[in-house]
Design a protein that fits this description.
The complex is a heterodimer of chains A (189) and B (228). Chain A starts with a helix and ends in a 5-residue tail after the last helix. By secondary structure, chain A is of the alpha/beta class. Chain A is globular. By secondary structure, chain B is α+β, with helices and mostly antiparallel strands. In chain B, strands 1, 2, 3, 4, 5 and 6 form a 6-stranded antiparallel sheet that branches. Chain B is globular, with a radius of gyration of 20 Å. Chains A and B meet through helix 1, helix 2, helix 7, helix 8 and helix 9 of A and helix 1, helix 3, helix 4, helix 5 and strand 3 of B.
Chain lengths: 189, 228
């Protein structure tokens, strides 16, 4: 099936649903705007930066992720229960959903393509160290790796380690340093 | 079901292909599928996420591997819309032809005329529920996962079947996907995070210093036999 065929079939379905009154013609633009502008990894980056500068917030975040992100106005989609797992010198966390593509939308937006593709879903539970190395994460052999396979409605986000040399930075500058991949656990900042 | 979607541990898929500055949607049709999913939810064709996930598991397995994420969603949404009688294949094909496409091109959707409709609405918002029973396991308990595949929707991946791990968190009771996906009721159960040593899952091929944690429902678990 060609790439085009999926596009045309989706358009056909959309037009049938518009005729039925179930969709409006601007619904698609609304979806695109939501996930480009409002719901994306910039939200998670704010959560991480806050945790780096505010030890009390970090404690609340690790104890109850859903309640803590609500303090910043985030919640809803795919975060009924958010568990935030902290990377340390001894432990590196990485998140996957092997059965589908569960992901904490409210803080990270929609998952990237590689997260949903077979290579990552099949391999990261079996050989996470090798996958991480291939993705550019070099961990000391003594660092333990915890893989979180999101198999129910609990959603996971990684709290990355704060990079060295950022002592003077404010919260907004720190947030700009936080990447989506670091909050999935496939990048070290 | 032991479908193509259950990918954990499978070999042969190669390197992870990352893309710089990836947009939320690569093409407009992907957002069209997203909007169609939302509409199907709003109009109660999709009653719950478990039903939708299972519809995606039921699409053509070759399409599952080749149509990409939103191609799979398209197959899932279309499957449920067709099973509900909201659209039919001939009207989709006619519209595809009008739009200049090939109406004979194979689709990912595989509607099942025997699929049970989910005819109830969620008992409450979200998936967390209260149940009268106390959790059977506590943090630190050693548990053994179920041994055999089940034909319908489940959230115990094949790679974690018949394995022993340790409960590390109890999350209260949640709607049971195995039942909810099939319209057999919410049947909430206690949910646990269970941590498995890499060696318990992959034996001598495990990487050192690795654990894998999954969130598993109580009915997937038994008390582990005593270890020497």
């Amino acid at each position: 099936m060609s790439h085009d065929h999926r596009a045309i079939r989706a358009e056909a379905l959309e037009s049938l649903l518009i005729e039925r009154g179930w969709l409006t013609a601007d619904a698609v633009d609304e979806v695109i705007a939501t996930y480009n502008e409002r719901v994306g990894p910039m939200n998670g980056a704010r959560v991480v930066a806050r945790a780096w500068v505010d030890a009390d917030f970090k404690q609340r975040l690790l104890a109850d992720g859903t309640a803590a992100i609500a303090e910043l106005g985030f919640g809803g989609e795919q975060t009924e229960k958010l568990v935030v797992v902290e990377n340390t010198e001894q432990i590196h966390n990485v998140v996957v959903c092997t059965l589908c593509s569960c992901y904490p939308w409210a803080v990270l937006g929609l998952p990237p393509r590689w997260y949903k593709d077979p290579a990552y879903r099949s391999r990261v539970v079996r050989e996470p160290r090798r996958v991480l190395t291939e993705m550019g994460v070099k961990l000391p052999p003594a660092t333990r790796i915890r893989v979180w396979d999101s198999s129910a409605e609990v959603r996971y986000m990684v709290l990355p380690r704060r990079p060295a040399g950022t002592d003077g930075l404010g919260e907004a500058e720190l947030a700009a340093r936080v990447t989506r991949d670091s909050m999935i656990g496939v990048e070290v900042l | 079901m032991d479908g193509i979607h259950d990918m954990g541990g499978r070999h042969g898929f190669g390197a992870v292909a990352r893309e710089a500055d990836e947009p939320a949607f690569h093409e407009r049709w992907e957002a069209r599928v997203f909007a169609a999913m939302r509409a199907a939810f709003a109009h109660r064709v999709i009653r719950n996420a478990d039903q939708f996930r299972h519809a995606i598991e039921r699409i053509d397995p070759a399409a599952y591997l080749t149509h990409g994420y939103y191609g799979r969603w398209l197959g899932g949404v279309e499957t449920l819309l067709r099973e509900a009688g909201v659209v039919d294949e001939s009207s989709i094909r006619a519209r595809v032809a009008q739009l200049g496409g090939d109406p004979e091109a194979p689709a990912a959707a595989r509607p099942d005329p025997r699929a049970a409709a989910v005819s109830y609405d969620p008992a409450a918002p979200g998936s967390r529920r209260d149940v009268p029973d106390a959790p059977r396991f506590r943090s630190g308990a050693r548990v053994r996962t179920a041994s055999f595949p089940v034909p319908g929707h489940t959230r115990l991946p094949a790679y974690a079947r018949n394995r022993t791990g340790t409960v590390t968190a109890c999350h209260g009771a949640w709607v049971l996907p195995d039942s909810n996906a099939h319209g057999r009721g919410e049947r909430p159960q206690h949910l646990y995070t269970v941590e498995f040593a890499g060696e318990a899952l992959w034996g001598e091929h495990a990487e050192p210093g690795v654990t894998v944690s999954l969130d598993l429902f109580e009915s997937y678990l038994q008390e582990a036999p005593h270890e020497p």
